[in-house]
Amino acid sequence: MGSSALLLAIETTCDETAAAVLEGPRPPGVGVPIIRSSVVASQVGLHRRYGGVVPEIASRAHVRQVLPMIDEALARAGVGLRDLDAIAVATRPGLVGALVVGLTAAKSLALALDIPLVAVDHLEGHLYACQLAFPDRQVYPCIGLVVSGGHTSLFRCDGPLETAMLGGTTDDAAGEAFDKVASLLGLGYPGGPEIERVARGRNPKAFALPRSFLHDDRLDFSFSGLKTAVLYALHGPNAQSPEVLLDEAGLGDLAASFQEAVVDVLVAKARQALARSGLKRLGVGGGVAANSRFRERIAAMGDAIGVEIFIPPISLCTDNAAMSAIALPKLWAGQVADLDIDVRAGLVRPGRG
Ligand code: KG4
Ligand code: ZN
């Protein structure tokens, strides 16, 4: 047994099938795990024509991709199955049929190789990606913000495994709102990069769009009213009408106004959580963190109030298996899963079900 441990991580929570090999020091060694390999098979092409993720299509694609991704991750890391010390898998939250594929592969490997299985929370993984991306800096304790197609949630993170949810979306996730609004504007999928593209150089103040809960004490989010406001701006009072009232410049202004409204709320709520907790670090994860206006505004907020901002490179913001390196601290803490563990679709949100 060497001084470091090798972990194979599997990720199938939504629409990316991913695997990674991580290497981290065994206790009493200290240090952040390193990524030996990380591969992702994106299903975006399969879901594009539907404008969103279709769960059954996602599950079937995971079934096709999970073993090739595991083989690819092992090959790129130059290790064999017998070199592994543990298997990690994200078991929550996510699409049930998708989660089951990854968990079944992970259980089978753990059983066959007689090594521990570690179950990880996908959102804790998204935040741990900040620590992986900045191994020489102290990320915890921090406020964590996950902004993706499936989630918009704020956490207090006293350590990688000590996270408590402070609030989340009451309807659509921020990325989902980008995807739905892009579809209303006749843009492609995924919507975030498309909205960002047409909004570039346009006027973000052209349309007065709602910013739900902005002046509310709750650390929650709501984007469905914003989506409806975009619909009315596009078609007028008869939202069912196929007629679009805006020219190309107007559509760009509407995209820019929408983007600004989402970013305003995300930045304001993160700032509120920081102020309330007194914490001086913010870790961000999820696909929406790829948005350049968001990155610019969150960095400016950090500068203004003296808070360190951690946003990983885009490959570690979007879904990936490397972030499941959080399984190593979990393993050292003795948190090994039983082989009869099940998946869980929803969030673990204390006190709110
Ligand atoms: O984290 P992610 O890859 O997958 C999960 O949903 O878990 O996030 C995907 C979401 C999509 O809704 C996509 O539209 C959004 O992230 N997104 C963006 C940008 N790039 C991706 N949203 C805004 N601006 C972007 N540049
Ligand atoms: Zn995610």
Keywords:
353 residues; alpha/beta; Nucleotidyltransferase, domain 5; 2 domains; five-stranded mixed β-sheet; 11 helices; 19% strand; binds 5'-O-[(R)-(carboxyoxy)(hydroxy)phosphoryl]adenosine; binds zinc ion
Structural overview:
Helix 2 (55-77) runs parallel beside helix 3 (96-113), helix 5 packs antiparallel against helix 8 and helix 8 (248-277) runs parallel beside helix 9 (292-305). The protein has a five-stranded mixed sheet with strand order 3-2-1-4-5, sandwiched between helices. The mean pLDDT is 95. The protein has 353 residues and is an alpha/beta fold. It has two domains: 4-121 and 319-332, 2-Layer Sandwich (Nucleotidyltransferase, domain 5), CATH 3.30.420; 142-316, ATPase, nucleotide binding domain (Nucleotidyltransferase, domain 5), CATH 3.30.420. It starts with a strand and ends in a 21-residue tail after the last helix. 41% of the residues lie in helices and 19% in strands. It is built from eleven helices and ten strands. It has helices at 44-47, 55-77, 96-113, 122-133, 174-184, 191-199, 224-235, 248-277, 292-305, 314-317, 327-332, and strands at residues 4-11, 16-25, 34-42, 86-92, 117-121, 142-147, 152-159, 162-168, 281-285, 308-310. It binds 5'-O-[(R)-(carboxyoxy)(hydroxy)phosphoryl]adenosine and zinc ion. Residues 122, 126, 148, 286, 319 line the site of zinc ion (ZN). Residues 14, 148-150, 175-176, 178-179, 190-193, 196, 286-288, 290-291, 318-319 line the site of 5'-O-[(R)-(carboxyoxy)(hydroxy)phosphoryl]adenosine.
